[in-house]
Amino acid sequence: MGNTHPGATSPFGMVSACAYSGAYPTGYGRYAKNTEGVPEDMFGRMQASGFTHFQQSGTGAIRKYYNYVRVTPMVQPLDDLGQSWALEEERAEAGYYAANLETGIRSEITVGEKVAVHRYTFPDHHSARLVIDLSCGGLAIDLGRTVPLRAQIESTGHGRAQGTVVMEGVPLSVYAEVDSPGWRQMLWYDRRLIPGGTRLDFDSIRHTTLRPFGMLFMGAARAGQTIEVRLGFSLRGCDQARRNLERECGVGQSAFETVRARTSSRWRDHLGRVRVEGGTDARRTVMATALYHSLIKPCIAEDESPNWPDPGPYAFDVCTMWDIYKTQIPLLSAIVPDRAGDVLESLIRVCEEEGNFPIGYRMARGADRFFRQASALAHTALADVHALRRPGIDWSWALVHMVDDLRRLYGEDFWEHGVVHPITHTLDLAYAHHCTAQVARALNDHRLADDLERRSRDWINAFDPATGLLRDSEFYEGGKWNYSFRLLHDMAGRIRMAGGDTAFTAMLDRFFGYGAEPVKQPGRCPDPIEMTAGYALNRFEGLNNEPDMEVPWAYHYAGRPDRTAEIVDAALTWQFGTGPGGLPGNDDSGGLSSWYVWASLGLFPVAGQNLFLVSAPAFARASLQVEGGEFVIETSGHRESPIGVDGIDRDPSPQYVQSATLNGRPLHATHLNAADVHHGGRLHLRLGPEPSTWGQRIRPPSLSDPHPKERR
What we know:
alpha+beta
């Protein structure tokens, strides 16, 4: 269910490459599209028709994916292009993927930031082929194909070729070098060779006129002979694609091992920024995997924007902000702040060029995609980074875009009426007004800040005071219970509206199923009646989707951090594992994995509020490399426990914080200012097997607090 793949990636790199079968959701694997229950098999085996680039990681139901520039090693005629062969002996490491095709060809791929290097070992054959298909894109499911609008390919010399395809309004260029001495080099169209042809141009392509096209290298192969394919990519033309290739691979020389070693080193550096001690082997494996998945997307391509000519970062695969703004963006801000800054700078440029901050942004024109999911989410990340006083962003200019974006799409009705449907957008917009007000006040625009803060109080219009829940409305991938407990900027007011701590806690207890019978999980292809009955339970979906990610920490605001500890421990123990199905839902481009990282550390970022909530960690000791040095979370009394079925005969009871110190001083509150983490320090948590009074009195700050500055 994680919707991830084992392909070769580089941290936040432009390229990710893996075997391609056309299956949902990334192009790798054997499953058909399914968003409810257990997915059906699309194929009866692991198979591939070649190896593609720009594969997604962990996304849900966005329908089309990239998978551009398919490379296929063959010992069959060109007519068989598109046929799939069984994958055998797959092997994956960070930055490296390998597999055998049943045709006897050994296939290996590594990637850099803007390049991919393939190495194919052929069997003895009189007519081997290496085919590069520039027409392939998307998935082999209904409505899943991406058709190029225009294309151009040309041979530029022996072993060299280049081409550009325009997909969904964006030109993707590739420059290829193929080490195949003695082999013929030709272009092909509609699976027919073009002897002597050096260039193909397609000015207008439609679904009805598309025929496959690309370049081919063909010749006799000795047993064990290797062919290396080096591909440089760019969104700014073939010349830049060639420069990217030369920068990372050198000129006309073998580069596989060099690129693999460099990417492996980058992964060691990034993964080394979070270290844990203690825990079982399985927990450490899941933690390392979660951190890895958290650092694949978004893709950050320096100086590659196809939409503006200036230098600077261009971030795509922001799929989507509603998945990553709560957990992944705060993680990047903590351990790779330069990359987080690049993402935000890119989003500001998207807003400047296309008119609004994107909720999701792909390698495609159009920043308004996914707007039904949520509104104005970039404001939270911008507010957090501004509070940390990080350089590199023109904040006066950023504030202009933040304010303007609040009045677009659903924001127009919110501005006029203080409420908008779908009702969840009322919460989004009220929260974004609060975040923007913090930036405006820090920039001394107090009149603007006061107006924004006043409008931010309209969060209350979204709720029915008779029930303490959201008003009836349409809900995107959830229901009113899923959305009713999100962490607002005025949780104190939210709890008072629900009837106080006891009533609010009782509502949360019902949502999480305390005292209720276990829920039967849907199986393969559940019918609508079964799914409707499940949704009608109004229960926690178990991290299966974004609305529920933050809800366990709502207990903190009602003085019940012990309940948070129980829910989080249950999720870490039973919902994640090391095998297939080891994630409880699609990974959301790293959003779900980032949740796991934070929860295992005993921290949870409250996006947009410059705040971390504290709970019992899953490891005896952990450390984060942050801009101020090192932030350490250490414990006393920690008890290791297994995860999943491995621990079914063991006591799964959680641990609770009994007391805490921050840099040697007592910490009586359940929260930290984000600066306490980002500047480095030492948090010590004394744990025990029973709930304590720690954290019951001092609550995390809220807008309506009489003393909002009190923290500890």
